Amino acid sequence: MxxxxxxxxxxxxxxxxxxxxxxxxxxxLEQVVRDEGADPVTIAILDGxxxxxxxxxxxxxxxxxxxxxxxxxxSNLASGVASGRPGSxxxxxxxxxxxxxxxxxxxxxxxxxxxxxxxxxxxxxxxMTALAQFPVAVVSAGAKAILDLPxxxxxxxxxxxxxxxxxxxxxxxxxxxxxxxxxxxxYDDMKxxxxxxxxxxxxxxxxxxxxxxxxxxxxxxxxxxxxxxLGAALAExxxxxxxxxxxxxxxxxxxxxxxxxxxxFSNVKLLENNARVAAQLAAALG
Length: 286
Ligand code: PSU
Ligand code: MN
Known about the structure:
- This protein has a single domain, classed as 3-Layer(aba) Sandwich (Indigoidine synthase fold), CATH 3.40.1790.
- Helix 2 packs parallel to helix 12, helix 5 runs parallel beside helix 7 and helix 9 packs across helix 12.
- It has twelve helices and ten strands.
- With about 290 residues, the chain is of the alpha/beta class.
- Strands 1, 2, 3, 4, 5, 6, 7, 8, 9 and 10 form a ten-stranded mixed beta sheet that branches.
- About 50% of the residues are buried.
- Bound molecules: pseudouridine-5'-monophosphate (PSU) and manganese (II) ion.
- Manganese (II) ion binds next to loops.
């Protein structure tokens, strides 16, 4: 019998975390998946090819070049592959490529969603589009708190994407366990959650599923630190007129500086936790 597979994205390596820590984290996530009895599949683009799994040299290239690597979502994936240049895949592109290989479970940190001010900027992550279209279960610590979370949850509902809480009633906010927003259903038993996901796809409802796995309490960013840093980062983005694909990496980078690295520590911990739960879910889905 083949082992269950878990897809892992690469934008978190190139754009989400600093070098050289990103290399260590990428390998650690793969190990967490293996320790749970599943096979990790890290997806990225190099030399005009989609790679399902990276060797040490390939991972090093992607990690070292960081933000010089093209951040590929659904609209620039094809041109990115055709260009022959290195590209990392966001949640949206990774979902598409995972589905193409029959991989049904994917672990990330936090999904992209509706940005604050989207009512004028129209900045809504293609992660929402992908969740609406591709039957892959995405395990995340919710959506990044830099986003407008109530609007993000509304759009997920509009798109027909089930939002399940793994051992939680609340939609988590990435660095924190809570947000005041509810999930569609809470599960405390992995088999039971797998049954609901399986049921959806059996019925021909072919949207993705967002599994919300809150950061463990001991690794949360402290409330005051979090609120202050987030406020400052958002104000700086506003003042600097940062938008589009640069916005998410900019905000994550500022959070790192403003929390003296604590946000990166929390980010790594929640990524590991998501990889673990994703591997358990993949096994339960069979
Ligand atoms: N989660 C993280 N760090 C990241 C991202 C998610 O902890 O860097 C990336 C994901 O790849 C996600 C992307 O798909 O940010 C969303 O970017 P945008 O808002 O531009 O769609
Ligand atoms: Mn965007």
